[in-house]
Structure formats: C-alpha cells, structure tokens
C-alpha cells in the first residue's frame, strides 16, 4: 500500500492564486451591499423626518385659528412661519443655523426649530440632517385672500466623513387653510 501524498507545490500555488482572485471580489460585493443598505437607511430616515414635519405642519395649520403673516417670512428659502395653535400659543417654526460635530469634525448646518411662546426652542430635525430650503409661498384666491400655503423642503443627510451627502430629499406640498383662519 502506498502512503497518501500531500499537496504538490504547484497545487498550493494554484489554490493561493484562486483565493487571491475570489476574496477581493467577495469583499467588493460585500462593501457594495453594505453601502447600498446604508444609503437606503439614510433615505428612509430623511423621508420619515420630512413626512413627520409636513404632517405636523398640515395638522397645526388646518387647526390654527390665526396665521401671523406679518411675522412670517414668505418667498424666502430660510422661511419663518408664525401662527397661533388651538391653545392660542404663538408657534414659530424657522430654519436656524447651528454647528454640529459629525465625522470627527465640526460643521455648520441648518436645522428646523420650533418655539412655542417664550419656551426654549426645540430642534425638529436631527443633527445629521442639513436642511437647505424651508420655504413658504402664499396661495391667494381671485379676491387676494390667503387660501393656502405651498411648503418647499430640501435637505440632505451628512455622510460619516461629512464631506459627501449620503442621501438627499426634496418635497413640495400645499396646505389649504381653513376659511375660519384669521390672517394678521
């Protein structure tokens, strides 16, 4: 009986060469899938944040007894909207600049901020989302009566290295104002 032989040098070299070809391709596929999943999560976070903000605005504006148009900023990408909520508290929603530490460095970004009466302001958007446009345009009827508001929202999510965008989002929605709304 013969003793079993081991691998020859040629077989070992061929196995190593095949390994060297297959592993980098596998790593590239894994990294591509991981990056796509992260981009999807970023996009989903952006869409959820925007949907919550726009839904909140829709609810608040359709229930508001008063819109303070003279204190609001219409037609500007750094919009400010001031109204009274059903409890007759003055609510201000604005785009405000702040600095955040992200990806190991400090960055200036714009975030949405809400303030109710004299209470401290509260950030509405996450510190990883840079809101680049928050615009309100009035919608008038043929008698020049304010009947609605077009809202434009553009934002992007910072990537971990903070030099690129991991996801971007823009939306436009119109909110019809109730006939009982008093515009000041």
Provide the β-strand percentage band: 35-45%
**Count of helical stretches:** 1
- Determine the N-to-C terminus distance: 104 Å
Main sheet: strands, sense, barrel: 6 strands, mixed
Encode the helix/strand succession as letters. HEEEEEEEEE
Unreliable segments of 5+ consecutive residues: none
The overall average pLDDT, rounded, is 86
User: Strand pairing plus helix content: what structural class?
Assistant: alpha+beta
Describe this structure in words.
This protein is 30% helix and 40% strand. With 184 residues, it is an alpha+beta fold. The strands form two sheets. It has a six-stranded mixed sheet, with no helix packed on it. Strands 6-7-8 form a three-stranded antiparallel sheet, covered by helices on one side. A hairpin with a 6-residue loop joins strand 7 (146-158) and strand 8. The longest helix is centred in the first third of the chain and has 55 residues, at 9-63.
Short summary of the structure?
By secondary structure, the chain is an alpha+beta fold.
Features:
9 strands; elongated; 3-stranded antiparallel sheet; 1 helix; 184 residues; alpha+beta; 6-stranded mixed sheet
Task: Tell me the layout of helices and strands.
Elements: H1 9-63, E1 66-67, E2 80-84, E3 90-102, E4 105-116, E5 122-123, E6 129-140, E7 146-158, E8 165-176, E9 182-183
């Amino acid at each position: 009986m013969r003793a079993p032989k081991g691998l020859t040098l040629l077989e070992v070299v061929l196995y190593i060469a095949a390994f060297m070809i297959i592993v980098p391709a596998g790593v590239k596929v894994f990294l591509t899938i991981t990056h796509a999943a992260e981009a999807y999560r970023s996009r989903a976070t952006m869409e959820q944040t925007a949907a919550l903000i726009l839904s909140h605005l829709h609810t608040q504006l359709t229930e508001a007894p008063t819109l303070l148009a003279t204190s609001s900023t219409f037609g500007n990408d750094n919009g400010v909207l001031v109204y009274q909520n059903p409890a007759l508290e003055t609510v201000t929603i604005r785009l405000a600049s702040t600095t955040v530490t992200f990806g190991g460095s400090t960055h200036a970004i714009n975030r949405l901020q809400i303030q109710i009466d004299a209470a401290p302001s509260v950030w509405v958007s996450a510190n990883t989302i840079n809101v680049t446009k928050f615009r309100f345009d009035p919608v008038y009827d043929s008698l020049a009566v304010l009947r609605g508001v077009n809202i434009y929202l553009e934002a992007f999510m910072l990537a971990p290295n903070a030099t690129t965008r991991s996801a971007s989002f823009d939306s436009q929605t119109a909110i019809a104002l109730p006939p009982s709304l008093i515009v000041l």
